[in-house]
Amino acid sequence: MLDQQKEIFREEAAELLSDLEDSLLELEESPEDMDLVAKVFRSMHTIKGSGAMFGFDDIAAFTHEVETVYDLVRNGEVPVTKELVSKSLAARDHISSLLSGEDIDEARGEELVTAFQQMVPGQQPAAPVETAPEDLGYGLFDDAPVEPPAPVAEAPSANADATYRISLKLDRHIINTGTRPDGLLRELAELGPHQMVAHTGDIPSLDQLAPEECYLHWDIILTTDQGLNAIKDVFIFVEDDIELKIDVIDDGEDPDADVDYMRIGEILLARGDITQQELDEILGQNKPIGQKLIDSNVVPQEKIESALKEQEMVRAARTQRKAQETATSVRVPAERLDYLVDMVGELVTVQARLSQAAGMREDSELVAIAEEVERLTAELRDNSLSMRMLPIGTTFSKFKRLVRDLSNELGKDIELKTSGAETELDKTVIEKLNDPMVHLIRNSLDHGIEAPDVRAAAGKQATGTVLLTAAHSGDSVEITIQDDGKGLDRDAIFEKGVEKGLISADAKLSDTEIYNLIFAPGFSTAKVVSNVSGRGVGMDVVKRSIDSLRGSISIDSQQGVGSTISIRIPLTLAIVESLLVSVDNESYALPLSIVEECVELTRQDIANAHGRHLVNVRDQIVPYIPLRQEFEAISEPPDVEQVVITNLNGNRVGFVVDQVVGQHQSVIKTLGRMCKDVKGLSGATILGDGTVALILDVNHLAKKVEQEAA
Amino acid sequence: MGETEGIDSNQYLTFKLDDEVFGLEIGKVREVLDFTNVTRVPQTPEFMRGVINLRGSVVPVMDLRLKFDMAQAEDTVNTCIIITEIEMDGETTVLGALADSVQEVLDLEPEQIEPAPKMGTKLPTDFIKGMGKQEEHFVILLDIDRVFSVEEIAEVKSSAA
Lengths: 710, 161
Prior knowledge:
The complex is a heterodimer of chains A (about 700) and B (about 160). By secondary structure, chain A is of the alpha+beta class. Chain A contains 22 helices and 21 strands. Chain A is elongated and about 115 Å long. With about 160 residues, chain B is mainly beta. Chain B starts with 10 loop residues before the first strand and ends with a helix. Chain B contains three helices and eleven strands; from the N terminus they run βββββαββββββαα. Chain B has helices spanning about 65, 145, 150-160; strands at about 10-15, 20-25, 30-35, 50-55, 55-65, 80-90, 90-100, 100-105, 115, 130-135, 135-140. Classes of the chains: A alpha+beta (about 700), B mainly beta (about 160). Chains A and B meet through helix 12, strand 20 and strand 21 of A and strand 4, strand 5, strand 7 and helix 3 of B.
């Protein structure tokens, strides 16, 4: 049980840490932003608190040091400096390694603890007695000086929001014991949205007033998800000197609770401010109850005000909850979602069989049912696939950190701009994109963007920019990495290509063709192998990872101006629209997105081409690949074959098949370990009749034929 | 399932290839299927018959006859696919093995099993775990993990290239 909770803590802490990283990076850019400081502090505070609760004492102890400093930052006693942010980022990494229990560098941890301790300017004197008068203004004015923490999403407690009524009366002499009432109230205010009403009725006339005594008492309505204990903890050191009454007035559990809350009379009654008799008497009159109560002088005006605030708070909390009900999220393990998608995949297959069978029976009722099932299945498929979609922004923020650290390391001034962070992609795709993206960004930073002085000499801004964008286009997502660096050296690449034997010295290549050479295996233009990039794993690895995602990558560049790398990735890896064809009595599927058209290929056409694999499509010559030959077919080809014309990265390539069967929703299955090295196939899918069709890796087939021809 | 401890059990599923009787540890066998439509995968070695749909998963099927350099046989009503779970690089992989016919589940005590002969069988001795004595006959107990070992993948690789 505890292990399970620890696991939950780990997950939550990992999320907090990633939020923390974002906040820190933002803070570095706008060090004046106190909201960000508060956010950082809250993250640290939560990590510390729940860390200690689940037995991660090392994390709690370490985080405490950092939190202490941020508390001071929050109070304006320590400024936000670049060093502080750097140290905090390092501390974040340290917490992260403590959390995973891997690569813990204890010396580094101690070093950081010392660094943070040194940032605390001496020990704070224990609670000063002289209290700034405006601090005592809590609740005297409607606007509480401390902003309630923004949506409680940052405080990932398992508890639901609950609303409490806190009635607080301090001992008159509490200030003499060194307690600052404003401190208590501020701590309380941090727990969540709140309304405070100070009761000033006990303040004597000026000649009798003793300035060091506290005459106020408060009614506070607080909505928090931290639980009752968190509230009690605020008063833990003054328990003996106060009268404290905490009532749960809305436990947040009952989603059906009416937005309307108790009436004002009922509230006062529940608080014991009036008796039932008094209430009944006043209810006889015909004014708004609040007004009546004031008029009748049964209850002082501020008590009514306080009760009104309670009403307002609870109403607000309940209205908000109603609105959020649909937006609440549930944490589900990824493998359960994968399983769901698998099941939906099977359902799609069975549904295809049903439709096929229904079509053959010529039973109109059955056909109607099959159509209904088809519609539902399609909806279910789209829905369950969308569940695995995540905004790509989660990785973008990681890159921010990467760029920050790398530009420091390289002594370059580089800014990362992003757009389209909300673009959604399948979770697995995002994970698999991470490494290639890191590699590409490293490349841009290391080889693309010049050192500041070189940039200045070239008349560019000293600060280099890397622009990361993501956008939907059709059934795929296009991601670009654009830098304003020196661009690719066309001639250097050409020379290198010749040297490596990739092209002949007299080859006439377009710019794009030359740039794409850098994706060839074993190609690296960097003359000096640096720490950052050029460690042997070149662009070919990137290319291969993108290929494995059924995506494509291309590069465009202008010397002196910069380079743009574009990656196109299909939205999901699970299901693809495909065109079903047959070759030698076996079925194959091609991704429909690349198919342009299908044309016939007669014996006469073949004879006319004199052995060359070319077909004339409306006066355009298109090379084709005879799949029968490729797959060593044994049976006789039909008299008229079909050519499926595809568009591969701008080139038209035909694939000759025996027959075009039709469109198919292909649920992609892996071929398994035994066949993973078979080239030209990217997977398999199950057809309506239960047999297996293989999915063609058209890019690979085309390249293979090209290489054989060269 | 009770047979999960099958690694140590003494039960073997026997099947025939030609006239030879082979045995597989029951713990390695997941199920036995009738012969169904196998989709050929181009550019794979001959002993790889293709892939089948096993309730939504794509499972490769190997022809043991070809694997053991025996003559290929016509598929008959008795031809079946034994679905096995083999260990490959520490991972469990599901794989179908084509057999002429499945015989029975045989109980063999350790003393009924003799070490693999150094010669005399047509198979590489690596593939054989031992020889089980069943009355007057011998059953060749296969080490199925070895039969489709890493070198086999390499073979798939090289012939596909």
